[in-house]
Amino acid sequence: MRSYLIRRIILIVPVLLGVTFLIFAITQLFDPYMRASLYIRDPRQAKNIESIIRKYGLDQPFYIQYFRWLDQVLRGNLGWSQSAHMPVLKALITYFPATAELALYAIPLTLIAGIFLGKIAAVKKDTAVDHATRVMAIIGWSLPSFWLGIVLLAVFYGGLGIFAPGRLSVWAENLVLSGKFRIYTGLYTIDAILNLNWPVFLDALSHLVLPVATLVIINVAILMRVMRSSMLEQLNKTYVIAARARGLDEKTVIDKHATKNALIPVITLSGLLTAGMLSGMVITETVFEFKGVGYFAAHAATQLDIPAVLGFALFAGILFVIANLIVDILYAYIDPRIRLG
Amino acid sequence: MGSPALPDGEQLRVKDLVVRFYTYEGIVKAVERANLRLRRGETLGIVGETGSGKSVTAFTIMALTPPPGRVEGGDVYFRRADGGIVNVVKLDETELLRIRGKEISMIFQEPNAALDPLYKVGDQIAEAILAHRLPEMLDKASKLLEDEVKRGAGGLGARLELWAYRKMRKDPRSAALRLLKRIPILRGLIDRRLRRVVREEIVELLRLMEIPDPERVVDAYPHELSGGMQQRIVIAIALACSPVLLLADEPTTSLDVTVQAQIIDLIMRLKKRFGTSVIYITHDMGVIAEISDRVAVMYAGNVVEVAPVKELFKNPMHPYTKALLEAIPRPGSSFKSIPGTVPNLVNPPSGCRFHPRCSYAKDVCKRVVPRLVKVSEDHYVACLLYGGGGDGEHTGNR
Amino acid sequence: MLKPKAKVEESPRIKELKFILRRIRENPLSIAGLTIVIFFTIIAIMAPVLAPPRPGRDPYMIPRYGYTPEPQPPSPEHPFGTTQGQYDLYYGVIWGTRTAYRIGLLVVSVSALIGILIGGIAGYYKGVVDEILMRLTDIILAFPGLILAMALVVAFGPGLDSITLALILVGWPTYARLIRGEFLRLTAEDFVEAAKAIGCSDVRIIFRHVLPNAIYPLLVVASLDIGSIVLTAAALSFLGLGAPEGYADWGQLISFSRNWIIGTAQNPFAYWHVYTIPGLFLFLFVMGWNLLGDALRDILDPMIRRR
Question: B105–A261: do the CB atoms touch at under 8 Å?
Fold first, then answer.
């Protein structure tokens, strides 16, 4: 296991380098003047474009530039974001808690619902339940996330007046930004609990309902299908029959043996799920005006704010690689065949 | 105590069993009116090619017909340990849970596949023991506790554990127990001695299986063991509750030849020790000759011949049996294979299913399905050469 | 009495095709998918007839009937009503079907071609070539698709062509991996060794022996991919990176509708047609292709395994 872990961790280094290289390659599509904005942290520096170009060797061959650029990135300099009026890295950090909050609710809900529905669909194969979940899955998977969000908003917010877009109502926002509310994490539901402020908690939660629902509906569809086929594969295996032959009741056979084995490939898929979530965040946060990194990136894209968009892409890529690494480690931990070599 | 279904001295009777599989490609008539009898304490070998229906029959004896298979007719009469006679295919699930693993057990072809890779082998053996011998284990554990309490050792924890065991004995599904099991810390406390007792039992069982270093093996995962060891574990699970009937579905086919011999040996010795009746399924005539008391030959879902082993090898009557015996490679003679291929069971041949490949086939063989008839002492054949047009059935494909 | 029947042995491919068609017929979901796909295909082909373009103008630009911002509900002149700025919605969704097909088919076919080329080279020649190409696909696949596409579109400059190009660049690795996998599997089979032994050239082996066997998984992935491509393209258009205002594109039309989800004081759903109709078209289009792809996968999977 240890050797597996070490190997796995070492392997992500070239991938991460590759990720940075790809982003860098995209920057090369621009002329030196545009690229200069990738290196400055302060708009006033734009006046000295020429010196910046010389400093970072923007007119030099690309391999030199790559290392200079990488050096800057590693120091946390991702450039200046026109659209957000702050350095890119700062923008990412500022907007990240909102996205984290969405993920905090969306990911567990997706996992629980997806695994449960997939398991049921497999155990009750070819019955009404199976067909119903299959239809749900196809619908969920085909739904455009932005359209779902809009329809949900139209129905609940437009029609019923509840679940407004944004993270907080005006009164709550004023309260949170005033000195009377201590911000610990940036995730408003958690902070509200820590501040023992029930009304703000409820308000933040109510603003989370629709965006989380949008993310969950679409991702559960995919997860459910994978869980179903994984379960079906396990249910055909000899050890399941052997477990029944031992005299174990069906519930134990399914829950203790089949499900646990079926979860293993599903874990690997969860890594890909984070990719879906990240992309989903961009859309969902935009539709619901939920000011997270996705919102920031979409906003920056429409403004053609290149450093911001590229910075976000880099961030997303790194996050994805790390998520996959965590999934791999988890997978190794759970499966004794890998854990014990 | 005899009965019309199952006379004295008989352990199992499969009567006119019909099993069909409902697949996309059509209805597979896997077992078509198979008949078998197993005497108490004997080893019945079932031999046949792939697709003969031997495995399906075995699974059905335990009511574990794999879906999309369904039992469409026939009976499986089984004499339980207490002497009672039941028809397995008509039992409900609760009854079946008491029989599977306890009175009828099974060992499988690929031991690696028969064990759950995520659990230690000891835990999997424990499952069988706890499913059927829980009261016995609880009593042992309680006794340990009582001794400890008497000596003055053991405090509150011991009393709690004793209470838990008594409760489990009386009312295994009690809500209070279920609640306790969910609290992580307490869960470990209330079955410490039970686990110890079960573990000792497992270690003894492994010793019986001639597994070296059983203390270590108990905590091993399946993939850490060799094929032969895995199969011994599977056998251990099957015999953990001293079943009266053991079904062995090609248990040595996927093992090395040397290991094969060891395992067969082990099975035979254990069978003698526990007094278990065995149904041994294989396609290997050599193994059949070695271990069986009687042999049943199956072809395309039918039982075509049944005889004591020596008699079968000396006087094979059914053309298929003869061909099988001739097909065994011998030094000096050329390879003799049986012409034709195993029939498609969605559209099996009409009448006798062997007729397309049979060198003795007559016109009537295409129309009538032969039934088993007695040709000599304890020797039965289903072939029109020896009569057996029986109930005058003219069948095409049904 | 006995009629000699001359039985012509059907070639295995025809048998397979018949089997596939029969299974499609038997599966209600796949029939639904096929119906939807055919429906949209007809609309796309018949667009000039269903919604005649104005002479001398780009048919993909939706005709405007005024300049007032407020969308008008469906009426005889405008069967689906008008959207913000008085663009005819009916025209927009009809020609939007063409846009969707244009992008979808173009992206899928080009990325599949690139994927076949690169995956084939990697799988056939193996070794260092394989390693390098696979690292390349790994890196691209290390990004969530939409996000990388977004970055590329911003770099190329917004527009449908940029979206198309970006999606091709983001999409080919999936095909490359698939084809490489198939190549690796098939070149390990004996018939390739045999062909080589006879002296068949590499190219001949690839085209006549390996590729036809790799077709089935490719078809499954491609049909599932079209839906996903059109969704992503619509999402990028929705974000404002795609078609300009007034262009017949479903994503663009939906993004227009964002301002009107609240409706009026009297009727919260006064402008339902603005967001419901283009979204419905998009959703049904994607669902149709997903159903078809799913059904194909169900049918072809056992066949793939049986080989």
Answer: no
